[in-house]
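User: hey, got a sec? need Adenylosuccinate lyase folded
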Amino acid sequence: MADFPLQPLSPLDGRYRSAVAPLANYLSEAGLNRARVEVEVEWLIHLTDNRLFGTEPLAGDVKEQLRLAYREFGQEEIDWLAEREAVTRHDVKAIEYFVRERLSQLGLDALAELTHFACTSEDINSASYALTVQRAVKEVWLPAFRDVIEKLRTVSLELADAPMLARTHGQPATPTTMGKELGVFVWRLERVLSRIEQTEYLAKFSGATGTWSAHIAAEPAADWPALTQTFIEGIGLGYNPLTTQIEPHDWQAELYDHVKHAGAILHNLAQDIWTYISLGYFTQIPVAGATGSSTMPHKINPIKFENAEANLEIAGGLFATLAQTLVTSRMQRDLTDSTTQRNIGVAFGHSLLALNNLRGGLDQIALARDVLLADLDRNWEVLAEAIQTVIRAEVVAGRSDITDPYALLKDLTRGHRIGAEDLTVFVDGLNISDEAKGRLKALTPAGYAGLAESLVRSKLEK
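Assistant: Yep! Here you go:
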């Protein structure tokens, strides 16, 4: 068979490219290289701003010209670096040569030796990965995550008063409302959201083994820890002062664990909504021109929730691997994190794809309130909990001498279908106060949802 022209191996770069494209600005190889150029350029400017080795601060317009090296980083620069790395066999060294060439173009050859000054590759990489992950999370992933939460909040509030038969262990149970059940997910997701928003994005900048040895050899009088801390914080990152050759990635493990946790909650949500659709609680809104089945014309399949499940599982597995492997490096440094970190974008890509599917899926469902009410009306036995609890209260108050109310209701309802008339007859025969009988006979499954609606409104309304 003939070979295809060059094709993407990953579906994220093929079928799903448009959905995850914004992440490529940060978490692609090109995004990483742009951040590396940024770190190299800003480090050189920082050195001159501090007048190291007799230099003077660059004029403002010169700084801006130099910064164009990363601000206008595009295909030409991507190609240049690819060609140079093919020769150097070292990605960060190619970045250094790129910055040196830009200095030469600006007539700044005298500053060439300040490029990559006293840096190990991991000084550049730790700052660059922190920048790219920070920007990808804050500018792409978090907005999509918040959008799902806000859509879910809106739906929860709209359905706060929609009574629904609960199913614990898959069996009929004390009624709730659809809004309250979806609101539980909002509450859970917001808790994880707050932890993700508090992420520290850390970098180190202390040389080959984290000791500033080369720095001090070049200028013993300088306060290098303070200079490098000011630099790292100046580019918007947190500073890690005590490391080996690498920043140990603990902040990454914490972030990926939290994102994985968010994904697990969303996976639970996708499965629940899928189940509610299968029960007929939600109807799916047809999309014009769409086909649900190649052979069954009537079908509208809940594919967005199914796709969300699958992508969350892939993302969760990758995030777990990232969190587990990145925190270990043999002695002062090994290279296992190099390949591992290049898959950060893949993990976030599948997670973002899942968020997009969930958001779209929530837009394409509508609650079938009549189905929920019919289901409740078929399960009057769920009021057994209320009846036996009221009897207990009556016994304690001295208004009843019934023994073992639980067993009494168990005999009546366990494994049996009963209706409104059956319960009315049963309640009339109970030795309890007339006031209690009246309250019990007024109950219906649809009216036995407790504080479900007020819980949603009190906790989720802004």
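Quick note: The radius of gyration is 31 Å. Let me know if you need anything else on Adenylosuccinate lyase.
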